[in-house]
Specification:
It is a single chain. By secondary structure, the protein is mostly helical. It has one domain (3-97). The chain is 73% helix and 0% strand. The chain has helices at 3-24, 29-32, 45-73, 76-97. The model has no long low-confidence stretch (mean pLDDT 87).
Length: 105
């Protein structure tokens, strides 16, 4: 049992679950809206925040879950799988959000 992995997994999961809660309550647009020239009427804010909230849930369950499982089972490779999963989802999100104008009205 590796306590460090368990603690890191729990902290990571809690952070992402709290971010998900803020995004799903539509309080998170001030974190997303940081560009100059942003016109509120041209974006589907509700859809964007719902999508980002779901992404936070995927990170919390997938990444944090792997870290917690790696700590409980004492398997170092599960920590690396969780880290690779987090990075893969981040790359997917960047590609998905920046192509196709999916969240434009």
């Amino acid at each position: 049992m590796k306590i460090g992995y368990i603690v890191a997994g729990v902290v990571l999961s809690l952070i992402f679950l709290l971010l998900r809660r803020a995004l799903r309550r539509k309080n998170g647009i001030r974190w997303v809206n940081f560009l100059e020239g942003y016109r509120k009427e041209s974006y589907d804010e509700e859809g964007l925040l719902r999508f980002l909230g779901d992404a936070m849930l995927v990170w919390a369950v997938g990444g944090g879950g792997c870290w917690i499982a790696g700590g409980v089972l004492g398997l170092d490779w599960l920590y690396r799988v969780g880290l690779a999963f987090i990075l893969a989802v981040a790359v997917f999100l960047l590609a998905f959000l920046n192509t196709g104008n999916r969240f434009r009205k």
